């Protein structure tokens, strides 16, 4: 117990002694500051700043002198709460003022003599130099912000004062691809408030103007070749990406500016435009604005890579994958992805029906890649279902052939049936009447009976417009295998029992049962097939277009038809006369484009109702913001369309406008 009391007394004495020592030291410092330091501090400070001036002018001296003065200002302070008070009021303030004065004089002179671009290098060097000097001469310990103040002072004098002059050089530098100088400008302007925004604007403007100028200059080439069009877009993207990487270090702000400007190039309508007419809509909507044809051309390019074409044959699997992923890269910037989806599905339908895919694995991979880049799930799921239907159809064909294996009269071995799910494949395909060859007419009931036994309750609808086959064609020259559409087959079979007769257009209409427009197109494909020097059918009198056919125009089989090789007619051979498999009639082509608009209308209404159901009550501005967010992966809804669909939904009592505030909407259950 006694030991504890002695220890407490000892601690109290020690604390008392420390307080006395501090008090003595404080009194001594106050005395020194009052009677001696106040008299010498100005000359001392002036001398230190003079030495600093000498160093900036590259004169040599013992730099410990300045450091010693700084330490004196720090150590002479008796204020326990702010030990840097004297240092800040005397040394730091003088250091900052001297620095500002020195560079105000130097900077203007250097700029006038050397120009802006050389001045940027000078300013950057001096900022680094002054930071290094500040680490030697200013207090950088805890509680001191001298370094930050010094840097800001230098930035204000060296950069901010000449901000306009420096930024004036940005646009020419971007145009001339002076990446190292732009990198230097970025370092300088990033230190100044609002210094980067003008640079971002210059970059955006350059990409828009240079990109569009490049596309317009190459319009003669790219408007007729989707491959060259897509490659041109990719070349521009990589060119601008390299600029952003080398000049701006892939700064996120500049990447955003690149994306914004490149999106403008991709969706511009100067080179290509797609008019989506909408004349028959039952739902209120005005005429839409022209759109870029880019999504259609991207889909065409994908088709060239995925189909057996000269392009896909000369590329390796890895090269095809790289190019497909490049397409998806460009697709990210396409505003109206629904157009791409529609055309991509059309091409996929053709490839699957005609069995012209170059690589079935790549086809299925493409579906998953579309899912990865954010394509709508319902669209991707339908594509996946299309592949499933083809595989199921293969199994059905095997079963059907097995059942008819011993039936000598059946043509099951020569027929391939594709049974497709209407929900996944349907594009409102018009069913066109046609008189099929007798063999096929008799075969159809067999298929229907077989399918009915397999799947009761399901109904088959035959779409001969999408069907095709191979026939053996015999004439005076030889025998040839012709790959043709069902419509072409119906026309050629009109001569099956009378190969040397002439048949009028009117009689062909009766024989084939085809609508007049379809018959004209089908006949023309057999009279003027671009890849053949000798055509399958001849017409009399000669016509320059299918529009010139009259009821009395006569048609006959060309008995001299043959494929020409090295200038000589061949007696045997195979020729594909299908070309691009027709998936829609001439009349429904415009309807197909209108279908894009109609689907957009329904998607817009669906999204509006989804938002209203969730929010119950929402402002017009907020509704439009959320609507764009929902639809952006399909298309960018125009404000006019949004307004019209809101009005339609109000009129049909799905929602209402508040009487007190017309910009506020309420959901009606």
Query: What is the number of helical segments per DSSP (H or I, 4+ residues)?
Result: 25
Secondary structure: helix percent: 55-70%
Strand order of the largest sheet: 1-2-8
Global shape: elongated
Main sheet: strands, sense, barrel: 3 strands, mixed
3D structure, described in words:
The chain has 669 residues and is mainly alpha-helical. The protein contains 25 helices and 11 strands. Strands 1-2-8 form a 3-stranded mixed β-sheet. Strands 3-5-4 form a 3-stranded antiparallel β-sheet. Helix 12 (294-306) packs antiparallel against helix 14 (317-331) and helix 23 (586-615) crosses helix 25 (639-651). It starts with a helix and ends with a strand. Mean pLDDT is 84; it is low at 277-287.
Task: Name its key features.
669 residues; mainly alpha; 25 helices
Q: Quick recap of the structure?
A:
The protein has helices at residues 2-56, 64-75, 85-137, 146-158, 163-167, 170-175, 179-189, 197-217, 219-222, 226-248, 252-266, 294-306, 310-314, 317-331, 337-354, 360-372, 377-403, 422-425, 438-454, 486-492, 505-512, 516-527, 586-615, 620-631, 639-651; strands spanning 468-474, 479-485, 503-504, 537-540, 554-557, 564-565, 568-569, 572-576, 617-619, 655-657, 664-667. By secondary structure, it is mainly alpha-helical.
Give the helices and strands, then pairings.
Layout: H1 2-56, H2 64-75, H3 85-137, H4 146-158, H5 163-167, H6 170-175, H7 179-189, H8 197-217, H9 219-222, H10 226-248, H11 252-266, H12 294-306, H13 310-314, H14 317-331, H15 337-354, H16 360-372, H17 377-403, H18 422-425, H19 438-454, E1 468-474, E2 479-485, H20 486-492, E3 503-504, H21 505-512, H22 516-527, E4 537-540, E5 554-557, E6 564-565, E7 568-569, E8 572-576, H23 586-615, E9 617-619, H24 620-631, H25 639-651, E10 655-657, E11 664-667
């Amino acid at each position: 117990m006694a030991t504890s009391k002695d220890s407490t007394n000892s601690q109290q004495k020690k604390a008392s002694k420390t307080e006395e020592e501090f008090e003595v030291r404080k009194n001594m410092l106050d005395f020194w500051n009052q009677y001696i330091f106040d008299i010498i501090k100005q000359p001392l400070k002036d001398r230190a700043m003079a030495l600093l001036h000498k160093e900036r002018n590259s004169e040599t001296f013992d730099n410990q002198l300045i450091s010693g003065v700084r330490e004196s200002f720090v150590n002479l302070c008796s204020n326990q709460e702010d030990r840097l008070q004297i240092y800040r009021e005397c040394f730091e303030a003088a250091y900052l003022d001297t620095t500002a004065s020195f560079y105000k004089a130097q900077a203007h002179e250097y700029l006038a003599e050397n120009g802006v671009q050389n001045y940027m290098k000078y300013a950057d060097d001096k900022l680094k130099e002054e930071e290094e000097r500040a680490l030697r001469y200013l207090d950088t310990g805890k509680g001191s912000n001298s370094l930050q103040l010094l840097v800001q002072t230098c930035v204000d004098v060296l950069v901010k004062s000449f901000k306009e002059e420096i930024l004036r050089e940005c646009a020419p530098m971007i145009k001339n691809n002076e990446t190292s100088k732009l990198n230097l400008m970025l370092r300088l302007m990033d230190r100044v408030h609002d210094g980067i925004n003008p640079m971002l604007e210059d970059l955006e403007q350059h990409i828009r103007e240079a990109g569009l100028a490049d596309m317009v200059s190459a319009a003669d080439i790219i408007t007729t070749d989707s491959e060259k069009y897509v490659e041109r877009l990719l070349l521009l993207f990589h060119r601008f990406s390299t600029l952003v990487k080398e000049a701006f270090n892939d700064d996120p702000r500049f990447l955003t500016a690149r994306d914004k400007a490149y999106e403008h190039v991709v969706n511009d309508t100067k080179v290509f435009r797609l008019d989506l007419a909408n004349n028959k809509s039952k739902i209120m909507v005005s005429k839409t604005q022209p759109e870029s044809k880019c999504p259609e051309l991207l889909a065409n390019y994908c088709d060239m890579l995925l189909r057996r074409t000269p392009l896909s044959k000369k590329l390796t699997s890895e090269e095809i994958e790289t190019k497909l992923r490049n397409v998806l890269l460009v697709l990210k910037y396409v505003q109206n992805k629904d157009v791409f989806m529609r055309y991509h599905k059309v091409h996929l339908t053709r490839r699957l029906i005609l069995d012209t895919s170059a690589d079935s694995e790549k086809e299925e991979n493409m579906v998953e890649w579309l899912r990865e880049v954010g394509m709508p799930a319902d669209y991707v799921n339908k594509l996946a279902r299309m592949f499933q239907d083809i595989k199921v159809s293969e199994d059905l064909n095997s079963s059907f052939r097995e059942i008819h294996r011993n039936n000598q009269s059946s043509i099951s071995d020569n027929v391939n049936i594709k049974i497709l799910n209407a929900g996944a494949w349907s594009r409102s395909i018009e069913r066109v009447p046609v008189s099929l060859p007798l063999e096929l007419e008799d075969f159809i009931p067999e298929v229907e009976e077989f399918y009915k036994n397999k799947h009761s309750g399901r109904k088959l609808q035959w779409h001969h417009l999408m069907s095709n086959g191979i026939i053996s064609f015999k004439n005076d020259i030889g025998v040839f295998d012709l790959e043709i559409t069902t419509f072409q087959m119906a026309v050629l079979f009109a001569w099956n029992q009378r190969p040397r007769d002439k048949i009028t257009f009117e009689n062909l209409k009766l024989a084939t049962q085809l609508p007049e427009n379809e018959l004209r197109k089908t006949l023309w494909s057999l009279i003027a097939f671009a890849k053949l020097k000798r055509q399958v059918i001849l017409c009399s009198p000669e016509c320059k277009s299918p529009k010139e056919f009259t009821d009395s125009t006569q048609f006959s089989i060309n008995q001299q038809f043959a494929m020409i090789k090295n200038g000589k007619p061949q007696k045997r051979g195979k020729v594909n006369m299908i070309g691009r498999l027709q998936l829609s009639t001439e009349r429904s082509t415009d309807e197909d484009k209108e279908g894009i608009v109609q689907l957009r209308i329904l998607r817009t209404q669906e999204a509006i109702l989804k938002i209203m159901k969730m929010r119950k009550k929402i402002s017009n501005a907020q509704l439009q913001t959320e609507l764009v967010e929902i639809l952006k992966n399909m298309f960018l809804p125009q404000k006019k369309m949004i307004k019209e669909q809101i009005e339609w939904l109000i009129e049909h009592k799905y929602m209402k406008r508040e009487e007190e505030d017309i910009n506020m909407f309420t959901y009606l259950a």
